[in-house]
Structure formats: structure tokens, C-alpha cells
Amino acid sequence: MSKSITQDLAYRQSLMKYAEKYGVNRASRKYNKSRSYIYFWKNRWDGTVQSLDYRSRRPTITPTSTQKRSRK
């Protein structure tokens, strides 16, 4: 994850601060975003900008993949 704050992260952070202060309904009208979008990020937000970054959706394990066999 990058240490720099991108425009997307700054936008989401301002959205979260506004929603915290005035409520989700008012924030959804001001930022023209759905309430479900705001609740999605609000549930993930812990007060830091890094928590508003996208997470990888790549699976950590693949149970159906074949294992590498070691040669003896």
C-alpha cells in the first residue's frame, strides 16, 4: 500500500468526516453517492486514511491448485 494520499483517498476521507458530522443521508445528497456506498466505507473506516484504500480481492489460498512436488 502506498504511503501517499491520493485524490480518491482524500475524497473518501472528506466524505467520511462529513457523514460523521451531519449524517449519512445528508452526506449522500451532498456528495451524490448512495447511502450503501457511504455505509460500506463507514464500516471499514477506523479514522485513518489507509483504511479507506481499496483492498486486494485476490484469494490467499487456492484449494484446487496443484502442489509442486519436490524431486528426490
Regions with pLDDT < 50 over 5+ consecutive residues?
none
What kind of sheet is the major sheet? none
Strand elements, count: 0
- Distance linking N and C termini: 40 Å
Bulk shape: elongated
- Give the % helix: 40-55%
Number of helices: 3
Which structural class matches the secondary elements? mainly alpha
Can you give the mean pLDDT?
A: 84
Strand content: under 5%
Assembly level: single chain
Return the string of H and E elements.
Answer: HHH
Cα radius of gyration in angstroms: 19 Å
Quickly list its features:
mainly alpha, elongated
What does this structure look like?
The protein has 72 residues and is an all-alpha fold. It has a domain at 9-51. It has three helices and no strands. It has helices spanning 7-22, 24-31, 35-44. It starts with 6 loop residues before the first helix and ends in a 28-residue tail after the last helix. The mean pLDDT is 84. It comes from Agathobaculum ammoniilyticum.
Concise overview:
It comes from Agathobaculum ammoniilyticum. By secondary structure, the chain is an all-alpha fold.
Helices, strands, pairings?
Layout: H1 7-22, H2 24-31, H3 35-44
Helix pairs in contact: 1-2
